[in-house]
Amino acid sequence: LGADDYLIRPFTTQELLESVMVRLHRHQVLNEAAEMRLDKTKRTLARMLTHELRTPLTSMNTAVDIVLREAKLFTPEEMRDLLETLAAGSIRLSRRVEQLAFITQIQTQTLSYRSITSQGIESRLSDLVMNAINQARRITGRHDDSVTIKHGDAAADAFVVCNPPALKQALIELIANAIAYAPLNSTVFIGQKYVPEGVRITITDQGSGIPEDRLMQAKELFAQLDRESNEQQGMGIGLGLAERLIDAHGGRMEIRSVVGKGTQVLIYLPGTAPNGSDDSMAAVTASAR
User: Fold this and answer.
1) Sign of the dihedral through C-alpha 49, 52, 55, 58
2) What is the reported pTM?
3) What is the CATH number of domain 1-110?
4) Which of 265, 98, 246 lies closest to 163, judged by CA?
């Protein structure tokens, strides 16, 4: 409410009309601003969907066309290159489909805390983490030793009631993000630890970090930070999707980041944990080592 919302009585008909017109104008401005933001989001989403779906399909179709026409002319090495192109396109396209499918399930409430608590499966957390690490390696294409992953498992016997594909997808998104932004010859630390509220997973990279004033934006769906300078390929879904999947499991996610030093994601999942913990980033990194 503004000063014009409080009229001094008695007031004239003209004053009443002017007050109504001011309020109508204010609502019109707000509605126009909201429509502009919505239109911008639609254009951005349409552009990203076109790029993220068409690009892998184009490379896959090209590779298939070449193989069909000239397969006999290729050496084994050349054939392997084409098959790797097909595999890379398939992995990228599959990930986009999985991301959009999970977003749809969350938004339609077919995947929710209620459904997970009633239909969830008790799963060993360390198995989900290891599977997610392997999948994240495939997604990023960084199979070599350019980025080392160290997995500290202080809660090796931890079990969580979960939707295994959904929780694994959350871990894949976060680990793949850490690997993708990790510099060459650096290390991504992944740790598991019992804490008073359950089990905590930490994923720490040594990348460029995220400015504090952009952490909230980074967790929005379809948010992309410095796409041009980072040359990132994606739809800006990863962090936002991971947080929503973790929320659906009754957990929570925190992000801590220092520009120029790295980013740490902390995942808290429900369970029994008699031991306390030191939440400092340095302590977690040390325990992961």
Assistant:
1) negative
2) 0.70
3) 1.10.287.130
4) 246
